Amino acid sequence: MKRRPEDYEWFLTWILVGFLFFSILLALANLRVFFVLMGVFALYLTLYPPIKYRDPSIMPAFELVVLLSIPFIIYVIMTLVPETNILTGVRVAEMVAIFAVSLVMMIHLQNYHGLVLDRILIVFFMIAFTSTLGMFHTLGLYFNDQFFGTSYVTSNHILMTDMTLATIGGVVLSIILLTYMRRRSLFHINVPDYQRRNGQ
Fold first, then answer.
1. How many separate helices (H) and strands (E) can be counted in the chain?
2. Which domain holds residue 75?
3. What pTM value is reported for the model?
4. Percent of the chain topping pLDDT 90
5. What CA–CA distance (Å, rounded) separates 82 from 79?
């Protein structure tokens, strides 16, 4: 019997779940608290639907799980390949993690918790959330410098660059989110109602 593309996506989704577990363990072994926390959050966003509905076949959209996995793929490559510029690569992965988690979390709230926001509030929420995550990330780097002798935040220029990127990222993500939801008609989908309408 010919399998549908969704079957392969479901299988690959669970492979990415295993990869997220591996990334968390690797980050824990390297004392990368930020990636541990982001990894746990990414796993929560991925595993919430099958746990809530007690059905492993109900998973988030495959592209969202791929998006959540991208920063951890970058992090694992930077960590396991010694020839790479690990500091630059990890900083990039950290920013991508902030953006990915923020975007998927907003879609998660819309789909599974009945959150309905108009377009202006979505833009405001995305900017506020990415900026807040960026602030906590920078604070974590600062305390890491103070207590472990690292040199992550060495100037105001680095500090403001991180904060500016987080803010710009929030604006870009809000545009992507609005486009994604308009294309997939996710603004008002409630999963139980959607399942009942489709006889699931």
1. 7, 0
2. 5-191
3. 0.74
4. 9
5. 7
